[in-house]
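re: that complex we talked abt at group meeting.

here r the seqs, copy pasted straight from the sheet so there may be weird spacing, ignore it
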Amino acid sequence: MTDTVAPRLRSVANGAKSSCFALSERQREALTGYLFILPLFLGAAVLFFYPILRSFELSFMQTGVFKGETFVGLKHYRHLMDDPKMWQAMVNSMIYALVGLLEVPLAIFFASLLNTPGLRFLSFYRVLFFLPVVTMPTAVGMVWQLLYNVDYGPINQGLALAGFPPVSWLTQPVIVIVAVAAVGIWSGLGQSIILILSGLQTVPPDLHEAAEMDGAGPLQRFFRITLPMISPTIFLVAVLNVIKSLQVFDLIYIMVGPKNPVFDQAQTIVTYFFEVGFVEHDRGYAAAIVISLLAMIMMVTGLQFYLQKKWVHYG
Amino acid sequence: MMGNIVLSKVKKSFGPVTVIPQVDLDIADGEFVVFVGPSGCGKSTLLRLIAGLEDTTSGSIMIDGRDVTDEAPAKRKLAMVFQSYALYPHMTVAKNIAFPLRMAGESADVIDKKVKDAARVLNLTNYLERRPGQLSGGQRQRVAIGRAIVRQPTAFLFDEPLSNLDAALRGTMRLEISELHQQLKTTMIYVTHDQVEAMTMADKIVVLNAGNIEQVGSPMELYQTPKNLFVAGFIGSPKMNFIEGAAAAKQGAKTVGIRPEHIAISTTAGDWRGKVGVAEHLGSDTFIHVQTEEHGTINVRAGGDVVVRNGDSVYLTPDVKRLHRFGSDGNFMRPHAGFHLAD
Ligand SMILES: Nc1ncnc2c1ncn2[C@@H]1O[C@H](COP(=O)(O)OP(=O)(O)OP(=O)(O)O)[C@@H](O)[C@H]1O
Ligand SMILES: [Mg+2]
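got the structure back, here u go
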């Protein structure tokens, strides 16, 4: 009884005060909430919503260096459809994203190793894996460029020792994308490991013990208990990973670069956007490219969310 | 399948900390054994040693005459019910119960039948397709028990399985587990710190204190003839009264113990005089805390019809035949002829 009376008493007591604003307690609570998120919302509006809306607007405009903006409707989007460079960029971005997804199983593997009970120097390993994440992509790209060097790069030297012919990692179509995606994995792995590790640490030890008593071996426990239990984390890592891949720019630009003979065949959506917008100064067309990228990211993420129903378990 | 379990000289240390110095224990096939003791005394550790979830530091564990000290948990053919239930949250009730069978490589038909049978016994038939998160505490408990029974283990291990349930449900589940034991006649080892569970369910109670076994015996043995002060104080609720000093010395003992239910209370005459402090009326019983002149606070358990109030003057008379005498080492002393407490 008392629990239903108490709120009523409280609203009666508040009645005198709130009446001058003519707001119910619920409305006042909501208003307080909105006020709290207002600063963040304003920040997001300036840094996020405005650029998107502006790009959207631009994508319907023809722009020039000295001309103003003239409305051209869907012209840019129609152009995109039969722009072979755009198709090439999209295919490359997809390959990059698919190869980049290998980061997820790798992260699960290393995180599981790091999650071994009683492991010593855990924080040291964590730092080790995380270092590439905080290293400037420019530096990473330059170092890997050397590693991939056809004639004196350690990778080809290693291959030579094993009796394989040298590979031109960065000057062949497709291979160059895979090679750069591998660097992307290397530099992003640490972050994924940290995320997966935190997921692993939320699995109650009781479950492992129960499964052990139930006769499940280490592999069965991993696949039947651990993996499903951390599937929400795996899903999150996969989604973030694909988005990051679709947005790749710096690694490609540094490791391949406009001077590379295969640059045109190695472009991703964002490097192509950069070329159109900042080299050719066709800002309207560039805007259409990013809006398409945005749509693509939303579609791929939407697809992932749809597919997750089949394999992600929320306890 | 037999389920007798023998621990010899079992010791367990975590690094420099010895939790169980040395335990020898014999558990007969089909027995319901309860481990009791204060928090942190090593009950769970001992259970986990038997389960194989912890390695023994030294000593050996035998199940059915087979040395299992170094065997993996699954090979020991024991089933454990955890305090947290440890149900697999991503699996349905049916899959949870089926899990040990699948791990054992049983065929789908056998699994299906066994799961259905277990569900029927445990009243879970309507919940088989639910996830553990959609069940009540009592239902989860039953799923955990179901997962344990389908494997037909040599023994069941329970670690405070009822402590997350409310009092009423605890009562029901206590009965269900006892009935299960009567049906299956499988060895059960049950950890609890609940007096009632220990007294009502056990064939044999093992009282632990700081990793040592203080006494092993049937509930009535422990109640009637506690071997030492610790067991005397631990078994029985409300606790046994202890009297030291001259009155005890008169009995040739360091300490004399008398259970609250073995003291008669009267408003007119008796051995000890005192004033009523708090009187707890439980309906069937009345717990009365009496402030006596000679012996401090004495707890008395009287019938539900006894009406006394705070501040009333009362007289207490202990039943001398039921006195427990303890020596300076805290151990039980045999009664000698004609001893008497109040002269
Ligand atoms: N993994 C461990 N490492 C170190 N010490 C431990 C470990 N597990 C248990 N202990 C210690 O061993 C002692 C016994 O613990 P245990 O869990 O067996 O007690 P318990 O009798 O089950 O207590 P409770 O009634 O509170 O469950 C405690 O002092 C505890 O701190
Ligand atoms: Mg415990």
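couple things i noticed - Residues B 43-44, 159 surround magnesium ion (ligand 2) (CB under 6 Å). The CA atoms of residues 16 and 200 of chain A lie 53 Å apart.
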